[in-house]
């Protein structure tokens, strides 16, 4: 029987469509524009990749610090939507401002602020999954979010790409084309958020008390102690830290990596557009399989595939290699993210989803501090970007081993 989303589930999925446009811009046009600004300032390709990686690491470190504490506050009655809206607003505003900057340093500073707002909004958005659907629908709903996010984000991206690449033909400057591209992305993100903001109601929560922030810290302390006792959750988070580290590092640095190798910018952008298109049916196909195959098995396949992708990156040096890599990533990227999110949502207490997803985000986007810093450091140390990117294979291998341990423990609990 065909799976149908409820009205609220559709509005939750729509936010994935909106924020994914920003994600696609960050992994494609942003680093190319930063490369343009950095090149004008005389910065080398290796240093350009390193600076971009360090900026991304700062973003994820900030969210790793803020996520659990703000997540604990968000679990208080009627707070989740307020904090989600604030984080989303910072991201949207930062996206608009980026288009008006001509200094590479200021571009990085505002990028850190915008990306932090975006990443923080996802902590609360992911935690909303427990409020908008039921446990037996989470795998499919989460998968639809990523699937439609991938294909929907292509619309503003293609429009922006046409404007940026055709700036000379339509008689506008590079600066003006970037202003328009960032503005289109920000408006797409904002408009896609409105239906969820109007309809969402916090279903699971802690009652509001005096000293909300202080009590939230106390609850967070209790949660941290609980996790160490719930070994299936603790081991999953540890595994997630390692394998998703590589996934987000690939997303954040793919275009910057191709640029540093001297590959054609247009070819890189089109290849990453193909990644989005391939990801759409791939996520939906895996979401159907998960009805008959346990999600643990599918997540295992995805981690193993990423290990092979990271190893392959060592030999990447042509446009064709990059296209092959882009298609391979598209096949597994959305599925590993979607099923990890829904898998975690099903094994945690629903009324503490904000706190738990704050910790989840530390082990997710916060973990990519290690990945991006590792790629940047090894690239500068060896003078070869291939070495830095291929080192991510170690992270996937560790993540695979730990995840199998966590999965076995969870199955035994059931």
Describe the protein in words.
- The protein is mainly α.
- The chain has a single domain (7-203, 213-413), classed as Growth Hormone, Chain: A.
- 81% of the residues lie in helices and 0% in strands.
- It contains 18 helices and no strands.
- α3 (45-74) runs antiparallel to α15 (353-363).
- The radius of gyration is 20 Å and the shape is globular.
Spell out the key features of this protein.
globular, 18 helices, single chain, Growth Hormone, Chain: A, mainly alpha, 414 residues
Termini Cα gap: 27 Å
The total beta strand count reads: 0
User: Treating each run of at least 4 consecutive H or I residues as one helix, how many helices?
Assistant: 18
**Can you name the CATH architecture?**
Up-down Bundle
**Class computed from helices, strands and strand pairing:** mainly alpha
C-alpha-based Rg, rounded: 20 Å
What is the total domain count? 1
Q: What's the CATH class label?
A: Mainly Alpha
What is the H/E order?
A: HHHHHHHHHHHHHHHHHH
The CATH superfamily appears as MFS general substrate transporter like domains
Sheet with the most strands, sense and barrel status: none
The dominant shape is: globular
Q: If you average the pLDDT, what whole number results? A: 82
Helix and strand arrangement:
Blueprint: H1 7-27, H2 29-40, H3 45-74, H4 80-98, H5 104-127, H6 129-132, H7 138-152, H8 154-165, H9 174-199, H10 212-229, H11 231-260, H12 265-289, H13 295-312, H14 319-347, H15 353-363, H16 368-382, H17 385-390, H18 392-413
Helix pairs in contact: 1-7, 1-9, 2-11, 3-4, 3-5, 3-10, 3-11, 3-15, 3-16, 4-5, 4-9, 5-15, 7-12, 7-14, 8-9, 8-12, 11-14, 11-15, 11-16, 11-18, 12-14, 13-14, 13-18
């Amino acid at each position: 029987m065909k799976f149908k989303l409820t009205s609220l589930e559709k509005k939750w999925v729509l936010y994935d469509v909106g924020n994914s446009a920003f994600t696609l811009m960050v992994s494609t046009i942003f680093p190319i524009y930063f490369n343009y600004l950095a090149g004008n300032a005389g910065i080398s390709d290796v240093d350009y990749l390193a600076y971009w990686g360090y900026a991304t690491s700062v973003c994820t470190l900030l969210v790793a610090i803020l996520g659990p504490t703000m997540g604990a506050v968000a679990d208080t009655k009627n707070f989740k939507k307020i904090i989600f809206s604030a984080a989303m607003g910072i991201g949207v505003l930062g996206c608009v401002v980026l288009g008006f900057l001509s200094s590479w340093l200021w571009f990085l500073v505002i990028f850190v602020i915008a990306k932090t707002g975006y990443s923080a909004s996802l902590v609360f958005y992911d935690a909303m999954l427990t409020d908008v659907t039921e446990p037996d629908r989470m795998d499919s709903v989460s998968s639809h979010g990523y699937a439609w996010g991938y294909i929907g984000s292509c619309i503003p991206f293609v429009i922006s790409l046409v404007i940026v690449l055709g700036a000379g033909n339509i008689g506008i400057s590079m600066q003006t084309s970037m202003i328009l591209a960032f503005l289109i992305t920000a408006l797409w993100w904002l408009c896609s958020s409105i239906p969820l903001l109007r309809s969402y109601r916090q279903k699971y929560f802690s009652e509001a008390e005096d000293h909300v922030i202080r009590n939230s810290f106390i609850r967070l302390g209790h949660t941290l102690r609980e996790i160490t006792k719930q070994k299936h959750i603790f081991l999953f988070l540890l595994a997630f830290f390692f394998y998703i580290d590589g996934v987000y590092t690939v997303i954040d640095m793919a275009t910057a990596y191709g640029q540093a190798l001297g590959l054609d910018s247009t070819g890189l952008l089109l290849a990453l557009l193909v990644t989005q298109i391939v990801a759409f049916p791939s996520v939906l196909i895996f979401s159907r399989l998960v009805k008959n195959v346990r999600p643990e098995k599918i997540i295992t396949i995805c981690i193993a595939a990423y290990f092979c992708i990271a190893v392959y990156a060592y030999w990447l040096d042509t446009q064709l290699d990059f296209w092959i890599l882009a298609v391979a990533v598209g096949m597994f990227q959305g599925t590993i993210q979607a099923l990890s999110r829904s898998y975690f949502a099903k094994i945690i207490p629903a009324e503490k989803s904000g706190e738990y997803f704050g910790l989840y985000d530390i082990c997710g986007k916060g973990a990519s501090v290690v990945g991006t810093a590792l790629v940047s450091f090894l690239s500068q140390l060896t003078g070869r970007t291939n070495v830095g990117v291929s080192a991510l294979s170690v992270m996937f291998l560790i993540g695979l081993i730990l995840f199998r341990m966590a999965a076995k423990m969870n199955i035994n609990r059931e």
